[in-house]
Amino acid sequence: MQSVAREKRESTRAEDRVRLQVILRAPWVQKPIDRIGKGEIAMWIDEVGAKGNGGKGLAASTLNRYRSLVSVVFEHAVERDIIGVNPARGLKRADETHRAREIFLSREEVLALVRTAPPELSLLLLTAASTGLRQGALRALRWADVDLDAGTLLAKATYAKGKKPQLFKLIPAVVEGLRECRSQMKVRSLEGADAVFRTKTGVAWTRGRLCTAVRAAVDACSQIASEKRGKVTLHTLRHSFASLLAIDGMSTRKLQEAMSHSDATLTGRYAHLDSEAMVEVQQRIGRLLDPQPDQLREGYHRGYQGERAG
Fold first, then answer.
1. Per residue in 280-304, pLDDT tens?
2. CB pairs under 8 A, 24+ apart, for 187-194?
3. Residue 115's CB: how many other CB atoms inside 10 A?
4. Which of 86-95, 256-265, 279-288 has the lowest mean pLDDT?
5. Residues 197-213: what's their mean pLDDT?
6. Burial of 77 (0-12, 13-18, 19+ CB in 10 A)
7. Which among 144, 156, 153 has a CA at the least distance from the CA of 124?
8. Are residues 182 and 142 in contact, defined by beta-carbon separation less than 8 angstroms?
9. Where do the domains of the chain lie, and which CATH numbers do they carry?
Protein backbone atom coordinates (compact mmCIF):
# COMPACT_ATOMS: atom_id res chain seq x y z
CA MET A 1 0.00 0.00 0.00
CA GLN A 2 2.86 2.36 0.77
CA SER A 3 4.38 1.82 -2.67
CA VAL A 4 1.03 2.63 -4.26
CA ALA A 5 0.62 5.70 -2.07
CA ARG A 6 4.01 7.08 -3.09
CA GLU A 7 2.84 7.24 -6.69
CA LYS A 8 -0.03 9.57 -5.79
CA ARG A 9 -0.25 13.24 -4.95
CA GLU A 10 -0.75 14.14 -1.27
CA SER A 11 -4.26 15.39 -1.96
CA THR A 12 -5.14 12.04 -3.58
CA ARG A 13 -3.65 10.13 -0.66
CA ALA A 14 -5.74 12.20 1.75
CA GLU A 15 -8.90 11.42 -0.23
CA ASP A 16 -7.98 7.72 -0.25
CA ARG A 17 -7.58 7.74 3.52
CA VAL A 18 -11.14 9.05 3.84
CA ARG A 19 -12.41 6.38 1.44
CA LEU A 20 -10.58 3.67 3.39
CA GLN A 21 -12.47 4.70 6.50
CA VAL A 22 -15.73 4.22 4.56
CA ILE A 23 -14.55 0.84 3.28
CA LEU A 24 -13.66 -0.29 6.81
CA ARG A 25 -17.33 0.15 7.76
CA ALA A 26 -18.51 -2.27 5.05
CA PRO A 27 -20.33 -5.32 6.52
CA TRP A 28 -18.10 -7.79 4.67
CA VAL A 29 -15.01 -6.40 6.45
CA GLN A 30 -16.05 -8.41 9.54
CA LYS A 31 -15.80 -11.70 7.61
CA PRO A 32 -12.64 -13.78 7.16
CA ILE A 33 -10.88 -12.29 4.15
CA ASP A 34 -10.98 -15.56 2.20
CA ARG A 35 -14.78 -15.71 2.59
CA ILE A 36 -15.50 -12.34 0.98
CA GLY A 37 -17.13 -12.62 -2.44
CA LYS A 38 -17.27 -10.38 -5.47
CA GLY A 39 -21.07 -10.15 -5.34
CA GLU A 40 -21.23 -8.66 -1.86
CA ILE A 41 -18.51 -6.15 -2.70
CA ALA A 42 -20.43 -5.07 -5.80
CA MET A 43 -23.68 -4.74 -3.83
CA TRP A 44 -21.93 -2.66 -1.16
CA ILE A 45 -20.42 -0.31 -3.76
CA ASP A 46 -23.85 0.15 -5.36
CA GLU A 47 -25.30 0.98 -1.94
CA VAL A 48 -22.52 3.49 -1.20
CA GLY A 49 -23.11 5.05 -4.60
CA ALA A 50 -26.83 5.45 -3.97
CA LYS A 51 -26.57 6.82 -0.41
CA GLY A 52 -23.41 8.90 -0.71
CA ASN A 53 -23.16 12.67 -1.01
CA GLY A 54 -25.98 13.24 1.43
CA GLY A 55 -28.31 10.87 -0.38
CA LYS A 56 -27.79 12.56 -3.76
CA GLY A 57 -25.64 9.71 -5.04
CA LEU A 58 -21.98 9.58 -5.96
CA ALA A 59 -20.51 10.37 -9.35
CA ALA A 60 -19.40 7.48 -11.54
CA SER A 61 -15.78 8.59 -11.21
CA THR A 62 -16.01 8.48 -7.40
CA LEU A 63 -17.54 4.99 -7.46
CA ASN A 64 -14.71 3.82 -9.71
CA ARG A 65 -12.17 5.16 -7.22
CA TYR A 66 -13.84 3.09 -4.51
CA ARG A 67 -13.67 0.01 -6.76
CA SER A 68 -10.00 0.61 -7.48
CA LEU A 69 -9.11 1.15 -3.84
CA VAL A 70 -10.95 -2.01 -2.71
CA SER A 71 -9.13 -3.95 -5.41
CA VAL A 72 -5.75 -2.58 -4.29
CA VAL A 73 -6.42 -3.74 -0.73
CA PHE A 74 -7.23 -7.28 -1.85
CA GLU A 75 -4.33 -7.32 -4.31
CA HIS A 76 -2.07 -6.45 -1.39
CA ALA A 77 -3.36 -9.58 0.39
CA VAL A 78 -2.79 -11.72 -2.74
CA GLU A 79 0.82 -10.56 -3.04
CA ARG A 80 1.42 -11.68 0.54
CA ASP A 81 -0.23 -15.09 0.03
CA ILE A 82 -3.01 -14.25 2.49
CA ILE A 83 -5.61 -15.11 -0.16
CA GLY A 84 -5.29 -16.75 -3.53
CA VAL A 85 -7.63 -14.61 -5.61
CA ASN A 86 -8.57 -10.95 -5.54
CA PRO A 87 -12.41 -10.97 -5.28
CA ALA A 88 -12.62 -7.35 -6.45
CA ARG A 89 -10.80 -8.00 -9.70
CA GLY A 90 -13.05 -7.64 -12.69
CA LEU A 91 -15.77 -5.63 -10.95
CA LYS A 92 -17.72 -3.72 -13.56
CA ARG A 93 -16.78 -0.08 -13.62
CA ALA A 94 -19.32 2.72 -13.74
CA ASP A 95 -19.67 4.46 -17.09
CA GLU A 96 -17.97 7.86 -17.00
CA THR A 97 -18.36 8.67 -20.68
CA HIS A 98 -21.50 10.75 -20.23
CA ARG A 99 -20.52 12.67 -17.13
CA ALA A 100 -20.86 16.41 -17.37
CA ARG A 101 -17.73 18.42 -17.92
CA GLU A 102 -16.77 20.99 -15.35
CA ILE A 103 -18.05 24.48 -15.88
CA PHE A 104 -15.71 27.35 -16.58
CA LEU A 105 -15.75 31.08 -16.08
CA SER A 106 -15.62 33.72 -18.78
CA ARG A 107 -12.82 36.26 -18.89
CA GLU A 108 -15.11 38.86 -17.33
CA GLU A 109 -16.16 36.50 -14.54
CA VAL A 110 -12.57 35.57 -13.71
CA LEU A 111 -11.50 39.21 -13.48
CA ALA A 112 -14.57 40.09 -11.40
CA LEU A 113 -13.76 37.29 -8.97
CA VAL A 114 -10.15 38.49 -8.66
CA ARG A 115 -11.32 42.07 -8.04
CA THR A 116 -13.91 41.21 -5.40
CA ALA A 117 -11.93 38.55 -3.50
CA PRO A 118 -10.24 39.54 -0.21
CA PRO A 119 -6.61 40.69 -0.58
CA GLU A 120 -5.09 37.49 0.83
CA LEU A 121 -6.92 35.49 -1.85
CA SER A 122 -7.07 37.63 -5.00
CA LEU A 123 -3.48 37.05 -6.18
CA LEU A 124 -3.79 33.31 -5.61
CA LEU A 125 -6.93 33.27 -7.76
CA LEU A 126 -5.26 35.23 -10.55
CA THR A 127 -2.26 32.88 -10.44
CA ALA A 128 -4.56 29.86 -10.64
CA ALA A 129 -6.51 31.30 -13.58
CA SER A 130 -3.37 32.31 -15.49
CA THR A 131 -1.34 29.11 -14.98
CA GLY A 132 -3.92 26.32 -14.58
CA LEU A 133 -2.15 25.16 -11.41
CA ARG A 134 -4.04 22.80 -9.11
CA GLN A 135 -4.81 23.86 -5.55
CA GLY A 136 -2.20 21.51 -4.07
CA ALA A 137 0.55 23.06 -6.17
CA LEU A 138 -0.59 26.57 -5.26
CA ARG A 139 -0.56 25.79 -1.55
CA ALA A 140 2.86 24.12 -1.80
CA LEU A 141 4.46 27.02 -3.67
CA ARG A 142 7.45 28.52 -1.85
CA TRP A 143 9.44 31.65 -2.61
CA ALA A 144 12.40 29.48 -3.58
CA ASP A 145 10.23 28.24 -6.47
CA VAL A 146 9.62 31.77 -7.79
CA ASP A 147 12.04 33.77 -9.96
CA LEU A 148 10.63 37.29 -10.09
CA ASP A 149 13.38 38.59 -12.39
CA ALA A 150 12.64 35.88 -14.95
CA GLY A 151 8.90 35.99 -14.23
CA THR A 152 8.65 32.24 -13.68
CA LEU A 153 7.59 29.72 -11.06
CA LEU A 154 8.45 26.05 -10.75
CA ALA A 155 5.65 23.69 -9.73
CA LYS A 156 6.95 20.84 -7.59
CA ALA A 157 6.90 17.31 -8.98
CA THR A 158 5.00 16.13 -5.87
CA TYR A 159 1.86 17.85 -7.11
CA ALA A 160 2.13 16.78 -10.74
CA LYS A 161 0.41 13.70 -12.12
CA GLY A 162 3.53 12.56 -13.96
CA LYS A 163 5.86 13.41 -11.06
CA LYS A 164 7.85 15.91 -13.08
CA PRO A 165 8.33 19.57 -12.13
CA GLN A 166 7.06 22.15 -14.59
CA LEU A 167 8.16 25.70 -15.25
CA PHE A 168 5.48 28.36 -15.78
CA LYS A 169 5.89 31.80 -17.31
CA LEU A 170 3.88 34.29 -15.26
CA ILE A 171 1.77 37.13 -16.61
CA PRO A 172 2.94 40.66 -15.70
CA ALA A 173 0.09 41.31 -13.25
CA VAL A 174 1.02 38.22 -11.23
CA VAL A 175 4.73 39.09 -11.27
CA GLU A 176 3.98 42.60 -10.00
CA GLY A 177 1.62 41.27 -7.36
CA LEU A 178 4.18 38.73 -6.16
CA ARG A 179 6.92 41.33 -6.12
CA GLU A 180 4.77 43.61 -3.99
CA CYS A 181 3.82 40.71 -1.74
CA ARG A 182 7.49 39.80 -1.24
CA SER A 183 8.54 43.37 -0.48
CA GLN A 184 5.90 43.70 2.24
CA MET A 185 7.09 40.65 4.19
CA LYS A 186 8.69 41.78 7.45
CA VAL A 187 10.02 38.36 8.39
CA ARG A 188 11.39 35.83 5.90
CA SER A 189 12.47 32.22 6.32
CA LEU A 190 15.89 31.13 5.12
CA GLU A 191 16.31 29.78 1.59
CA GLY A 192 12.86 30.92 0.50
CA ALA A 193 10.98 28.36 2.58
CA ASP A 194 8.02 30.70 3.18
CA ALA A 195 4.72 29.77 1.56
CA VAL A 196 3.94 32.26 -1.20
CA PHE A 197 0.20 32.27 -0.57
CA ARG A 198 -0.97 32.65 3.04
CA THR A 199 -4.06 33.56 5.00
CA LYS A 200 -4.51 37.03 6.45
CA THR A 201 -2.96 35.80 9.71
CA GLY A 202 0.22 34.79 7.90
CA VAL A 203 -0.07 31.00 7.93
CA ALA A 204 -0.03 28.75 4.88
CA TRP A 205 -3.43 27.82 3.47
CA THR A 206 -4.80 24.43 4.34
CA ARG A 207 -6.98 22.68 1.80
CA GLY A 208 -10.11 23.17 3.91
CA ARG A 209 -9.55 26.85 4.68
CA LEU A 210 -8.73 27.62 1.06
CA CYS A 211 -11.86 25.86 -0.23
CA THR A 212 -13.98 27.74 2.32
CA ALA A 213 -12.43 31.09 1.37
CA VAL A 214 -12.93 30.46 -2.35
CA ARG A 215 -16.54 29.44 -1.73
CA ALA A 216 -17.20 32.70 0.15
CA ALA A 217 -15.50 34.79 -2.55
CA VAL A 218 -17.52 33.14 -5.32
CA ASP A 219 -20.78 33.58 -3.43
CA ALA A 220 -19.98 37.28 -2.98
CA CYS A 221 -19.20 37.83 -6.67
CA SER A 222 -22.45 38.90 -8.29
CA GLN A 223 -20.85 39.07 -11.75
CA ILE A 224 -20.64 35.26 -11.91
CA ALA A 225 -23.78 33.87 -13.53
CA SER A 226 -26.18 32.74 -10.81
CA GLU A 227 -26.88 29.37 -12.45
CA LYS A 228 -23.26 28.27 -12.10
CA ARG A 229 -22.13 30.20 -9.00
CA GLY A 230 -22.91 27.32 -6.67
CA LYS A 231 -20.79 24.92 -8.74
CA VAL A 232 -17.65 27.04 -8.98
CA THR A 233 -14.57 25.79 -7.09
CA LEU A 234 -10.89 26.65 -7.24
CA HIS A 235 -10.46 23.85 -9.79
CA THR A 236 -12.92 25.72 -12.03
CA LEU A 237 -10.14 28.24 -12.67
CA ARG A 238 -8.00 25.46 -14.13
CA HIS A 239 -10.77 24.63 -16.58
CA SER A 240 -11.26 28.33 -17.25
CA PHE A 241 -7.55 28.66 -18.07
CA ALA A 242 -7.87 25.92 -20.69
CA SER A 243 -11.13 27.24 -22.08
CA LEU A 244 -9.84 30.79 -22.48
CA LEU A 245 -6.76 29.58 -24.34
CA ALA A 246 -8.85 27.32 -26.60
CA ILE A 247 -11.29 30.12 -27.41
CA ASP A 248 -8.33 32.38 -28.18
CA GLY A 249 -7.16 29.89 -30.81
CA MET A 250 -4.27 28.12 -29.12
CA SER A 251 -3.35 24.85 -30.82
CA THR A 252 -4.50 21.59 -29.27
CA ARG A 253 -0.94 20.32 -28.84
CA LYS A 254 0.23 23.40 -26.96
CA LEU A 255 -2.95 23.46 -24.89
CA GLN A 256 -2.35 19.84 -23.89
CA GLU A 257 1.15 20.76 -22.78
CA ALA A 258 -0.07 23.84 -20.92
CA MET A 259 -2.56 21.63 -19.06
CA SER A 260 0.17 19.10 -18.29
CA HIS A 261 -1.58 16.28 -20.17
CA SER A 262 -0.36 14.15 -23.02
CA ASP A 263 -3.51 13.64 -25.10
CA ALA A 264 -6.68 15.34 -26.23
CA THR A 265 -8.82 13.63 -23.58
CA LEU A 266 -6.96 15.62 -20.92
CA THR A 267 -5.73 12.45 -19.25
CA GLY A 268 -2.09 11.50 -19.15
CA ARG A 269 1.27 12.51 -17.84
CA TYR A 270 2.84 15.79 -16.83
CA ALA A 271 4.87 17.38 -19.62
CA HIS A 272 7.29 20.26 -19.86
CA LEU A 273 6.37 23.18 -22.07
CA ASP A 274 9.06 24.04 -24.55
CA SER A 275 10.21 27.66 -24.29
CA GLU A 276 8.26 28.79 -27.38
CA ALA A 277 4.98 27.28 -26.17
CA MET A 278 5.52 28.59 -22.64
CA VAL A 279 5.97 32.14 -23.93
CA GLU A 280 2.88 31.81 -26.14
CA VAL A 281 0.76 30.71 -23.18
CA GLN A 282 2.00 33.65 -21.13
CA GLN A 283 1.33 36.14 -23.91
CA ARG A 284 -2.15 34.83 -24.69
CA ILE A 285 -3.36 34.49 -21.11
CA GLY A 286 -1.66 37.75 -20.13
CA ARG A 287 -3.63 39.59 -22.79
CA LEU A 288 -6.87 37.94 -21.68
CA LEU A 289 -6.35 38.29 -17.93
CA ASP A 290 -4.67 41.64 -17.46
CA PRO A 291 -6.29 43.37 -14.47
CA GLN A 292 -4.97 46.64 -13.14
CA PRO A 293 -2.66 45.63 -10.27
CA ASP A 294 -3.68 48.57 -8.06
CA GLN A 295 -6.22 46.48 -6.17
CA LEU A 296 -3.68 43.73 -5.54
CA ARG A 297 -1.06 46.25 -4.44
CA GLU A 298 -3.48 47.95 -2.05
CA GLY A 299 -4.47 44.58 -0.63
CA TYR A 300 -0.90 43.62 0.18
CA HIS A 301 -0.14 46.99 1.76
CA ARG A 302 -3.01 46.55 4.23
CA GLY A 303 -3.09 42.76 4.16
CA TYR A 304 -1.52 39.91 6.03
CA GLN A 305 2.21 40.55 5.48
CA GLY A 306 2.38 43.02 8.35
CA GLU A 307 0.78 40.51 10.68
CA ARG A 308 3.55 38.00 10.08
CA ALA A 309 6.07 39.86 12.24
CA GLY A 310 6.55 38.70 15.78
1. 777 888 888 876 545 554 544 444 4
2. 187/308, 187/309, 187/310, 188/143, 191/144, 192/142, 192/143, 192/144, 192/145, 192/146, 193/142, 193/143, 193/144, 194/142, 194/143
3. 16
4. 256-265
5. 92
6. middle
7. 153
8. no
9. 2-79 (no CATH), 107-308 (1.10.443.10)
132, burial (CB in 10 Å: exposed 0-12, middle 13-18, buried 19+): buried
**CB under 8 Å to 45, separation ≥6 — which residues?**
63, 66, 67, 70, 91
The CA distance from 78 to 87, in Å, is 10
Q: What is the pTM of this model?
A: 0.62
Rounded Cα distance between 229 and 295, Å, is 23
Determine the distance from the C-alpha atom of residue 272 to the mean position of all C-alpha atoms in its chain, rounded to a whole number: 18
**pLDDT tens-digit readout, 19-46:** 888 899 999 999 999 999 999 999 999 8
